[in-house]
Each structure stands twice: as structure tokens, then as C-alpha cells.
Design a protein that fits this description.
Elements lengths: L18 H9 L2 E2 L13 E4 L3 H12 L4 E4 L7 H5 L15 H9 L13 H14 L1 H4 L2 E2 L2 E8 L15 E7 L4 E6 L1 E4 L27 E2 L10 H4 L3 E5 L3 H16 L4 E5 L6 H4 L8 H15 L4 E3 L3 E7 L8 E7 L2 E7 L1 E4 L28 H4 L14 H4 L6 E3 L13 H15 L3 H5 L2 E2 L14 H7 L10 E2 L20
Parallel strand pairs: 2-3, 2-8, 3-4, 8-17, 9-16, 10-11, 10-16, 11-12
Antiparallel strand pairs: 1-7, 5-6, 6-7, 13-14, 14-15, 18-19
């Protein structure tokens, strides 16, 4: 079932299975019960998620003429990105568009946005992901409103180790009407991301006592402080917990709101003894927009606009009855003893972790610390790596003992906090090449290094970013696998740098 025989035409040379033919091949494996209709059609490659990396995977599969089916839980392509649509990316358009996707779009008459502009999440969806999902080569093979519940082998559970490759993979789905359907698959590329699977507020990787009960006053990592969610924060006290770029984005938005709405107060709690890692490298940063972010955040803390609490490990949350004291009391352990912060709202900017439950019945090989593919883990270990020190990598690094199963995109990084969107594009390009039997293309892993992509936040005003010359005027030279890949971040060595 996982034959890697090359298709006619080799790399991108064969006519893709598009339109009615592709839709017929994909739909043939949709059904209730065991899935499939006995038509003898080759099962498609199933891509989980219609975000940037999932649609890039579809574009590369389409170019290689491989049957594929994209399953998206949201109502439209880029649904997760739309939830943080108010946030502007660090990286300009030139680094946010996959090469195969660009070819399909331009063939359909699409005009790329200005290469040096920094898109918001909403613009990424409107000007790139939505048009890409409408391209005829992809549109017939995208199923929205389709949640993936599990991946397994058709007829086998995880305990069966003999003859697994003789059975197709099986993807169980549920649509918005609650109907369960099974899809047989030649291969599965899980590009479902981590957006809806956040880390808890509590220390040691566990929810704090009272955290579940206080859910109504806890927001996700990127609330729209200056827009949709303004009423929740204006004139109130907000506690932001976390030391990543999501926290920085929210803190700077809150600082701006405080200048517009009297009574708006901000407390920032971090588990570490310093916020220097998030302040970054300032003018030395490889991305000026990100460097300016850290500088602005440090200025706000130094000016007293943000009250910073160091070494604060959340141990408990308690609801408060008196509105004058806020709605929740957050208790934390510090080197000086127990400390409490009362607030109206808590922003949990504590990072993400992958949802691995849907992969319980297949054989994965994951690093116990990062929950990333075991060969990728040393390259992305946040104890020793920052966002710009991860080399490009492809199918061999991402393969699992379960033939045909791949975790790509943000989810492939597991619990590691930083991810390059262009890195995900190269991942799925290599995977598609391998599935087409083009081993040479799969193993020639190259990347036009963009410094960052999904590491996103609200940078300076666009005129400031333009003045800084974000990312330079031309794309950097491609780097081969094994070449040193890195750029200035101001904090090398990941978490270990904090111990120096």
C-alpha cells in the first residue's frame, strides 16, 4: 500500500489529478463503517489541517499527480489562523508563501502581495490561504467542517505488529452534523498544528488547582485586546502569564490600551528569573520587527507601565466575590515565598503542546521531552536552540515506524516553542517527493531561510518596519541540509542561556 514507485513525469512533471478526477478518487474512500467502496482506486494521501503547511502539502501533492484529501476541522481553510487574525507576522510575504502554492496560484491569475510587507493573520488568510483553497487543483479535495478523531490501520490496532504495511491507514472523521466516516489513506500528513491545545497555567506541566473552575476569566494566548475583546480589558487589571512572543504581543497591546482607557493595569508573571530571553537582541536581531518588539517591551517594563513579577510559578487560582479586588486571585511560589496577584482577567500565554490522542493507534517515535519526532528533537530542543538555529529537514527526519505516517508543521515541533513557517513548507515538499518515489528530491533539503514565520507578534508600525529594512532587500541564499543555519536572536542556546 505504501509503494514508492515513481509516477510518470517524475518531479512535478505529470499532470496532477485535479477537478472531477481528483474528487472522484478522494470521495471513493469516504464512507461509513470500514470506509471505502471496493472500487480499487488507490487511496489518497490524507492531509490533516488546511492551514499554511497543510495547504502547502496539498499543493506539492497536486503537482506530483498524487491523489490527496485535505481534512479541516474549521469551517474554512486557515480557520486557526483567523483566530489570531489581528496579529502581524514577523516575516514578510516573501517568506510566507510556499513555492508550489505560488505556482498554482499564479497559474490561476493570482497576484502576490508586496514581498516586503508584513501580513496580519487575517491578511494571510484573505490574500493567500483562501485563494489557494479555491484553486481548482485543490478545491475539490478539501473537506471543511471535518474533525479527525483518530488515525489507525484498517482492521488493526496498535498491538498488531505483523503485516501492518499490508493494510491502508484509516482516518476516522466526524462532520458538523455528528456523522462518523472512515477514510482509507495511502499515507497521512498530520499538519493539524497545536493552536487549540495550550499548556496549563500551573507549574510542572500540570493545571493548577482551581484552574479549571476559573476558566471563565482565563483567555487564550492572543486575545484581540484592541479590537474584538477590548471591553474585557479596558479599565481593568490583567495578569499575563508567559514569556513567549504571544505574551509580548498581548502586553504591548495592553500598554497601548492603558494609554487610551484610564484604570487599565497590567501585571506580567514569568517563571524564569529574567525576561532577557524575550527582550531579544534589539538592533542585533536578525528580524528588525522582532528586535523592536523586545526593545519596546523592555521600555514599557522599565517605565512602570507593566509590573513584572519574576520567578512566579502558579500554584492556585481562586475566584473572588468582591469586584473591587478583581475576579480571580492567582497564587504563586517565588524564591521569597508565596505571593498572590488579584486580577480581572488572566491571559494564559504559556505555549502549546501537540494533541497526540488521535495517533494512539499508530506507531509513532517521539522524543519524551519535546514530543517531536525523535530524529527532529535534537535539532529543535528549546534548551539549546532558539528560533533561528534549526537546520532545514525533510522526510527522513520526520518518518515514523508507521509507514506513511508523518507529523509536519507546527505539530512536528511538539512542545518546542518556536517554528518557522517556511521550514514546514520544506518538510511537506520533501514528504511529497518521497511519496512520489523521488528519493533524490526528498533528500535534497534546502531552505531560503526566512528567520521566522509562525513566531508572530505585533511589530512596530509598518513605516518603522520599512525603515528598518526588514529581512533585507533580497532573499538569502538557499542552505543545504547540514549547513550551519542561524541568525542573530540576542539569546543563543535556548533555555540553557538563562543559566549563564
Amino acid at each position: 500500500m505504501n509503494d514508492h514507485t515513481p509516477r510518470p513525469g517524475g518531479c512535478c512533471g505529470s499532470a496532477p489529478a485535479t477537478g472531477a478526477d481528483a474528487a472522484e478518487q478522494a470521495t471513493a474512500v469516504l464512507g461509513t463503517g470500514t470506509g471505502g467502496d471496493g472500487s480499487g482506486q488507490e487511496p489518497p494521501v490524507v492531509v490533516i489541517g488546511a492551514g499554511p503547511v497543510g495547504l502547502a502539502a496539498a499543493a506539492h501533492l497536486a503537482e506530483r499527480g498524487l491523489p490527496f484529501l485535505v481534512l479541516e476541522a474549521g469551517e474554512r481553510a486557515g480557520a486557526a489562523v483567523s483566530e489570531w487574525g489581528h496579529v502581524r507576522l514577523f516575516s514578510p510575504w516573501r517568506h510566507d508563501i510556499d513555492a508550489a502554492a505560488r505556482r498554482l496560484l499564479e497559474a490561476a491569475g493570482w497576484t502576490a502581495p508586496p514581498a516586503d510587507a508584513l501580513p496580519t493573520g487575517a491578511e494571510l488568510v484573505r490574500d493567500y490561504l483562501a485563494p489557494l483553497a479555491r484553486v481548482p487543483a485543490l478545491a475539490a479535495n478539501i473537506r471543511t467542517g471535518t474533525e479527525v478523531l483518530a488515525v489507525t490501520r484498517d482492521g488493526l490496532d496498535a498491538t498488531r505488529t505483523v503485516g501492518r504495511d499490508e493494510h491502508p491507514l484509516l482516518v476516522r472523521t466526524r462532520d458538523t452534523a455528528g456523522e462518523i466516516r472512515d477514510v482509507r489513506a495511502r499515507a497521512v500528513i498530520d499538519a493539524s498544528g497545536t493552536w487549540r491545545n495550550t499548556n496549563p497555567l500551573g507549574h510542572s506541566g500540570l493545571p493548577a488547582p482551581g484552574e479549571t473552575e476559573a476558566a471563565a476569566v482565563i483567555t487564550g494566548p492572543l486575545p484581540d485586546v484592541l479590537g474584538r475583546d477590548r471591553g474585557r480589558f479596558a479599565g481593568k487589571h490583567t495578569l499575563v502569564v508567559g514569556a513567549g512572543h504571544s505574551a509580548a504581543n498581548t502586553l504591548l497591546s495592553l500598554t497601548r490600551l492603558a494609554g487610551e482607557a484610564p484604570g487599565t493595569r497590567i501585571t506580567w508573571a514569568v517563571r524564569g528569573g529574567s525576561a532577557a530571553r524575550l527582550y531579544g537582541g534589539g538592533d542585533a536581531d536578525g528580524l528588525p520587527a522582532r528586535g523592536a518588539l523586545g526593545a519596546r517591551l523592555k521600555e514599557a517594563v522599565d517605565a512602570g507601565a507593566i509590573r513584572l513579577v519574576h520567578s512566579f510559578a502558579v500554584t492556585r487560582l481562586d475566584s473572588l466575590d468582591s469586584p473591587a479586588d478583581g475576579t480571580v486571585r492567582v497564587t504563586g511560589a517565588t524564591p521569597a515565598g508565596e505571593r498572590t496577584v488579584s486580577a480581572d482577567t488572566v491571559v494564559a500565554a504559556t505555549g502549546f503542546r501537540p494533541d497526540l490522542d488521535l495517533l494512539r493507534e499508530v506507531h509513532t517515535e517521539l522524543d519524551p521531552a519535546t514530543e517531536a519526532p525523535v530524529r527532529l528533537a535534537p535539532m529543535i530542543d528549546p534548551n539549546f536552540h532558539s528560533c533561528g538555529t534549526v537546520p532545514p529537514h525533510g522526510e527522513r527526519v520526520l518518518a515514523h515506524p508507521e509507514t506513511g505516517l508523518y507529523i509536519a508543521g507546527m505539530k512536528s515541533y511538539g512542545r518546542a516553542p518556536t517554528f518557522l513557517m517556511a521550514t514546514g513548507y520544506e518538510q511537506v515538499r520533501s514528504i511529497a517527493a518521497a511519496l512520489a518515489g523521488d528519493r533524490a528530491a526528498a533528500d535534497t533539503v534546502r531552505l531560503d531561510l526566512p528567520e521566522t514565520g509562525v513566531c508572530s507578534t505585533d511589530p512596530p508600525a509598518e513605516d518603522e518596519a520599512a525603515a528598518a529594512g526588514c529581512c533585507g532587500s533580497s532573499a538569502p541564499e538557499p542552505l543545504s541540509l547540514g549547513a550551519p543555519v542561524g541568525f542573530a536572536t540576542g539569546r543563543e542556546h535556548g533555555y540553557s542561556g538563562e543559566r549563564r
